[in-house]
């Protein structure tokens, strides 16, 4: 699959980059994508929720009323879950929501997500660029030139670029990542995927294994 390369002004450079069919033109596996996104979201959960159970409540252990003759149910402790202020039955405890997926499945999920973007014509390849200094205005100009200023966009760089990253950090609808940080969730969460020329080779190297 060949895709035209544009510059940061949105103009065609006259060059085309060859996208590997093994990465950008496979048969998408929806279940692999589902599992990888599910794992990503599960890992975002802190799992610090906690409710006090009966043994953790501070209170008197005195029997609150006599066993018989009251006409009501027996009650032995003010800490009982049936009373207000008592412990909670089977309350939430701190836990880790993460689960394991093998590398081959995660690789398949990312390739499936990239293929979906390519099929939807939501993939743009731009030549490698840099800024002299971190400026949000410069990054906004790039978004406008590429026609993605009103869309949620994800820029993938071949190598870390501090000026480009800092220029995008204040924008809620755009994110800049390196090829090693790319995830299935981030690909699908963006309406437009912008790859730099340097990132294409890196992605194919990582995902073609």
UniProtKB/TrEMBL annotation:
GO terms for cellular component: ribosome. Residues 58-77 are annotated as: Disordered. The keyword Repressor does not apply. Keywords: Ribonucleoprotein, Ribosomal protein, RNA-binding, rRNA-binding. NCBIfam families: rplD_bact. Transmembrane segments: none annotated. It comes from Gangjinia marincola. Belongs to the universal ribosomal protein uL4 family. The lineage of its organism: Bacteria, Pseudomonadati, Bacteroidota, Flavobacteriia, Flavobacteriales. Part of the 50S ribosomal subunit. This is Large ribosomal subunit protein uL4. Forms part of the polypeptide exit tunnel. One of the primary rRNA binding proteins, this protein initially binds near the 5'-end of the 23S rRNA. It is important during the early stages of 50S assembly. It makes multiple contacts with different domains of the 23S rRNA in the assembled 50S subunit and ribosome.
């Amino acid at each position: 699959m060949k895709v035209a390369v544009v510059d940061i002004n949105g103009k065609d450079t006259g060059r085309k980059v060859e996208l590997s069919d093994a990465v950008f033109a496979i048969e998408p596996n929806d279940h692999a994508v589902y599992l990888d996104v599910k794992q990503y979201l599960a890992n975002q959960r802190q799992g610090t929720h906690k409710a006090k159970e009966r043994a953790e409540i501070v209170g008197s252990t005195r029997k609150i009323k006599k066993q018989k003759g009251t006409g009501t149910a027996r009650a032995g402790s003010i800490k009982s879950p049936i009373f207000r202020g008592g412990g909670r039955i089977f309350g939430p405890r701190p836990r880790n929501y993460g689960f394991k997926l093998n590398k081959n499945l995660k690789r398949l999920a990312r390739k499936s997500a990239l293929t979906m973007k390519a099929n939807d014509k939501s993939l743009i390849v731009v030549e490698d660029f840099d800024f002299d200094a971190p400026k949000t205005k410069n990054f906004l100009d790039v978004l406008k030139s590429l026609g993605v200023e009103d869309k949620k966009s994800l820029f993938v760089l071949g190598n870390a670029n501090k000026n480009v990253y800092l220029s995008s950090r204040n924008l809620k609808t755009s994110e800049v990542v390196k090829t090693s940080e790319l995830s299935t969730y981030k690909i699908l969460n963006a309406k437009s995927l912008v790859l730099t020329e340097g990132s294409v080779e890196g992605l194919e190297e990582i995902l073609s294994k």
